[in-house]
Amino acid sequence: MEVYKLEDMMNRMSCRRQEPPQLEHFQFFQQLGRGAYGVVHHVRSKIDHQEYALKQMEIISGPDGIPQSVLREISIMKSISVKRHPNILGLRAVFHRLVRENAYVQINMLVEKCDWDLYTFLRDIPKNLPEHQCRHISAQLLHGIEFLHSHNIIHRDLKPQNILINRDQTVKIADFGLSRNYSNTSAFTTLVCTLWYRSPEILLQSYYDSSSDIWAVGCIISEIFSRQALFPAQNEADQLKLIFQRIGTPLPHDWPQDAVVDKDSFKCWPLKSIAQINPFLCQASVDLIDRCLKYNRLERLSARQALEHRWLCPQKRRVFQNLNTNQY
After folding, report:
1. Is residue 325, in this structure, part of any structural domain at all?
2. Residue 322 has pLDDT above 60, yes or no
3. Alpha-carbon distance 265 to 33, whole Å?
4. Considering only 33-47, 160-174, 182-196, 308-322, which range has the smallest mean pLDDT?
5. 8 catalytic, yes or no?
6. Over the stretch 239-279, which tens digit does the pLDDT of each residue have?
């Protein structure tokens, strides 16, 4: 794993030219979540009295430096937060301090606070969302993804837990710890994306690009309707098998040539539409999801093409008007 020296990291971290905030500037409330690198707290600023989420990561201070993944997350969030896209979680400040007798560096990322993540929201509501609300959430998700892809960023870990939503149903994409800038010749690790939302080409350890995000979007839109994960396998060995059982085994010409597993290793299941396994979908949304879940990544819709889909047309003008009020 690549790392950066501590002094180099700190030189890159400040989001603002003025004096960075300190922990004593915040009143702490409950813990909002916990991840691989640290915890997220609900805080209120004693200076501007606004509420935020504070992500705290403790990293061993020493010659090994700071993991590249941490630097990458901060760098990407800094670059996109300047644009202030309404469907991307905004980074407000980054600051650090030494803790535990200088044995650790605590990196603090101050971000917008949202009311729920999509996973919790879908499981807290008493019944399935009506179609217009599913469309509203899906359109915002795709606007956020289109923005990322237009800036050559692949998220690589899209899942309901990393999509935040407010009481007014504004959607914001969060958690850029696995995100990467990319070009047409980029090569990436396949140890990305939460299992249930991982595209077949990633599971087959073959070449992938931004279309892997679109596969995850198709899974998420289906879940918005049904409140159930589309491909909830227990392990990597079963994930491809479950996908093939549910929507069919890819045809030979759609099997990646650089896949580490041969197509003949799997039972041949007939291809079928998502409508056959998710009865909650409306007809137009079925077509959109089917086109996001194409096995051939080159045949998947781009985020921009998905936003032009007929199912999203009634929503497009409304969301576009909201986007025009934000300069990004």
Report:
1. no
2. no
3. 40
4. 182-196
5. no
6. 999 999 999 999 999 999 999 999 989 999 999 999 999 99
| Residues pairing with 319 in the sheet | none
Dihedral class, residue 196 (left if φ above 0, else alpha if ψ from -120 to 50, else beta): alpha
Q: Does residue 4 register a pLDDT over 60? A: no
7: pLDDT strictly greater than 90: no
Domain assignment of residue 159, given as a range: 116-320
Is 245 in the same domain as 290?
Answer: yes
- Which pTM was predicted? 0.88
Q: How far apart are CA 328 and CA 98, in angstroms?
A: 35
Q: Is residue 327 part of a domain?
A: no
In tens, the pLDDT along 71-80 reads 888 999 999 9
Could you tell me if 190 and 205 are in contact, meaning their C-beta atoms sit under 8 angstroms apart?
A: yes
Please count the residues of the chain. 328
Cα distances from 21 to residues 8, 26, 95, 189, 221, in angstroms, run: 20, 9, 7, 35, 38
- DSSP string for residues in 138-149: HHHHHHHHHHHH
Are the C-beta atoms of 148 and 191 separated by less than 8 Å?
A: no
Q: Do the Cβ atoms of 111 and 52 come closer than 8 Å?
A: yes
Distance CA 78, CA 119 (A): 26
What is residue 236's predicted lDDT score, i.e. its pLDDT?
Answer: 85
| Residue of 8, 117, 124, 157 marked active site | 157
Residue 326 lies in a domain: no
**Counting beta carbons within 10 angstroms of the beta carbon of residue 259, is it exposed (0 to 12), middle (13 to 18) or buried (19 or more)?**
middle
The structural domain count of the chain equals 2
Q: Which residues are annotated as a binding site?
A: 55
Q: Which of 55-69, 211-225, 296-310 has the lowest mean pLDDT?
A: 55-69
Residue 227 has φ and ψ, to the nearest 5°, of 65, 20
The band of 316, judged by pLDDT with boundaries at 50, 70 and 90, is low
Binding-site annotation: residue ranges for ATP:
55
